[in-house]
Design brief:
alpha/beta; eight-stranded parallel β-sheet; binds ligand LZUJQKHR; 287 residues; 8 strands; 13% strand; TIM Barrel
């Protein structure tokens, strides 16, 4: 299982491939997991935002955890188990643990807009699952804003091993890395290098589904004190990152993965839609 010392490096939130009819394409999933495992990543995230978690069914998720666990062997497996229903989050997290997950990535409860105290209780309640928890702060998707005090309160909980910061607020990230002993991970791809400079311990980065080794190199160069090299490696990735977030993630990512024959189809489940022809035209250079 993961802990606050081992939670670091480049972790990839894998896409959930669907076939043309919209069914889970487990063959593509297994192939992609194998490719990522062989690319030097430090961990894999199944059922993240990039994995289209809102439209993945329980049995589909169980199948993906089961298959990923086998392929990854000792490599860390993190599963997205967030919900705006605390009881459902507990159930999902406990099931992920049974199937061999090393930690759960739990987004703050969305839509019902709980109080700061309610959010604290939500994370406290997850202790009973026995699985290490990573707090996932992504306010532009959840519409749940975490006060700094709330973040610090949650990070103090024994079962919470760290945090993924997708606020895009580098000042806040810097404040957290300076005051908190638990790892803060970057969840905003275009800030990955900057976050390392500010003390993050790595990132959970959708873009690293592609050019995986290059993202790992940025992390390794930085860790080895080769800052200039890390910066240059990261700079060469920024046009790709910009393209991948030019429409809602993971639509551009699925399109490029399909174009590169890494998955069989760029199909998403509604309400997510495939990229427009105009966006596809801009992406020809990445093929
Ligand atoms: O799935 C994830 O984890 C990520 N999702 C973010 C998003 O889609 O908003 C982006 C980040 O790269 C990781």
């Amino acid at each position: 299982m993961l802990n606050e010392e081992s939670l670091r490096g480049v972790m990839v939130p894998i896409v959930t491939p669907f076939d043309e009819q919209g069914y889970l394409d487990i063959k593509s999933f297994k192939r992609l997991v194998t490719r990522l495992r062989n690319s030097g990543i430090h961990g894999l995230v199944v059922n993240g935002t990039t994995g289209e978690s809102p439209t993945v069914g329980d049995s589909e998720l169980e199948r993906m955890i089961y298959e990923a666990r086998i392929i990854l062997e000792e490599l860390s497996l993190i599963v997205g188990t967030g919900s705006n229903n605390t009881a459902a989050a507990i159930k999902k997290t406990a099931r992920a643990k049974e199937l061999g997950a090393d930690a759960a990535l739990v987004a703050t409860p969305y839509y019902n807009r709980p109080s700061q105290q309610g959010i604290v209780y939500h994370f406290l309640a997850l202790a009973e699952t026995g699985l290490p928890i990573i707090l996932y702060d992504i306010p532009h998707r959840t519409a749940a804003t975490l006060d700094l005090h709330t973040v610090k309160t949650i990070l103090k909980m024994d079962h919470v091993i760290g945090m993924k910061d997708s606020t895009g607020d580098i000042k806040r990230l810097f404040q957290l890395t300076r005051t908190q002993s638990k790892p803060i991970l970057c969840g905003e791809d275009d800030l990955f290098y900057a976050s390392l400079c500010c003390g993050s311990k790595g990132g959970i980065l959708a873009s690293a589904n592609l050019e995986t080794q290059q993202f790992v190199q940025v992390y390794e160069s930085f860790r080895n004190g080769k800052n200039q090299e890390a910066r240059e490696q990261f700079d060469s990735l920024t046009p790709l990152i910009q393209f991948l977030f030019s429409e809602p993630n993971p639509a551009p990512l699925k399109w490029l993965l399909a174009q590169n024959r890494l998955i069989r189809s760029d199909r998403l489940r509604l309400p997510m839609t495939q990229i427009t022809n105009e966006t596809a035209q801009k992406a020809i250079r990445f093929k």
